[in-house]
Amino acid sequence: MQYLIIGFILVLALLAISVSNRHGIPSLLLFIILGMGFGALGLEFNDYVFADGFATVALMVIMFYGGFGTNWRMVKPVAKEAIVLSSLGVIATALLTGLFCHYVLGFGMVEGMLIGSIVGSTDYASVSNVLRSKNLNLKYNTAPLLELESGSNDPTAFTMTMVFLSVIIGTEISVPILIILQIVIGLAVGFLIAFLIGNLLIRLNLQADGLYSVFMAAVMLITFAICDILGGNGYLALYILGIYLGNKEFQGKRDVVFFFDGLTEIMQIGLFFLLGLLSNLPDFLRALPYAAATMVFMTLLARPITVYGLMLPFRLKANQLKMISLAGIRGAAAIAFAIMAVNSEADFAVDVYHIVFGICVLSSLIQGSLMPVGARRWDMLDPSDTVLKTFNYYLDKANLGFLETKIRAGTKHVGTKVKDLNLEFDFIVAKIERGDKTIVPRGEIVFQEGDTIVLGGETHFDKSGQELIEFTIPERHNWAGAFIKDLDIPADRLIITVQRKDHDLIVPDGETQLLADDKVVLIHLQDDVELVDIGHPDRG
Known about the structure:
With 540 residues, this protein is of the alpha+beta class. It has 3 domains: 2-379, Na+/H+ antiporter like fold, CATH 1.20.1530; 398-458, 2-Layer Sandwich (Alpha-Beta Plaits); 467-539, Alpha-Beta Plaits (2-Layer Sandwich), CATH 3.30.70. Helix content is 56%, strand content 9%. The protein contains 18 helices and 8 strands. The protein has helices at residues 2-23, 27-40, 48-68, 72-75, 79-103, 109-118, 124-133, 142-152, 154-169, 175-203, 211-230, 234-246, 253-278, 281-310, 318-326, 332-343, 352-377, 392-397, and strands at residues 400-406, 427-434, 437-439, 452-458, 467-472, 493-499, 505-506, 519-524. The strands form 2 sheets. The chain has a 4-stranded antiparallel beta sheet. It has a 4-stranded antiparallel beta sheet with strand order 5-8-6-7, with no helix packed on it.
């Protein structure tokens, strides 16, 4: 029965995404409402321990893939602003909110600071969801700034939450030491493992489909576990790991993108649904006035004061500051940290979970819905391009492919200009590599012997039923040492590439001699595909 319910929930979640795209309601909010609805219909769930474990794994995936999808080239021009907001911005927002909770709402000072810390960070899943689903390509590099800020500020909120929880529980540890350990160990583990894995990926050769994804998932878990054992901030380490590996090219990266794209979506659906299911409607309604007051204060005062104050040295435009202030959506990370606080068995005078839950629901509903409106009203939209260029996985999932070839001695292309190449098909010269230099292929650039040319074009998804057959020629095989023109190859098969042990890729013709250990790729045409004989060289 439980499997039927899970399947039904996933189908409803997909329908929620469709409703979100049509009506502009943040889809993640609809997942929460879906969970609350199932709870109201009698599906009881109050296992905070399980919810804490699931939220931890979900945030691990979201943080890692958030970093992995960050296009560093796009965010680098606004990295300083984003890092200031993701560190000092979280601290300032948390402290202002904590003071409001204490002096206006009457909470205890430490409890107010705890709630301020929990909701101090903006939510990457919510912000990126709004940016991508509404294609809000914002002017002045604002979208990359928001992406980097929301993707990297959860570790600061987590550290502050740990500090105030330790104070409430009475843990005998120096607060400065706790903060230093969280940050230093998180940074050290993240960069060290990122460097090691980045170099390993260059040498790694996992041929079977999906193994790169499994490897990456294992690295993600190992990184978080090592950091947690050492007392560091595992989310910070994962974000650094993700952003480092996501900006490297390696074999199998496309598989990793599609795997984590689906996994992240499932984790987000499951997390937001579970958070909604965990809430109790009467408790939610009792906490709603406190949540609404805090959310309004954060939206109208705490976030704008923080943004305008900290961005003053960077001289951002007035409309840009308004947009950044509005984009301070609170979401999954805050609710997950609230669950962690509940599981700490600390004695609270207020309902921390439902106050935080209410803040996040209202923030997602109001701020998430107003972001497209604000972008248009403040003339912040750039309709000439797409916000998806900010994310690495846009290119990794795009229908683009690249071919590499070399200008060899004695060929007609030596001395030819790029503009005279006369490409008759839909290809472009993407770049030229000459020694250690990369050259932008402008029309007047002249090809030289030894240049490596990278051609870009649209990839082909084969619908004809053709199959690729790949095998390595063993020693003493009758193909070892033979020329392709002398092979008795069936008419429905064609050798398209040969790869040597030294990794040289050969485009074969009839005079190509095959050697032992060569990896040969053939295309096998099915019976309903006609092979037209045009005198291909490898037919002799």
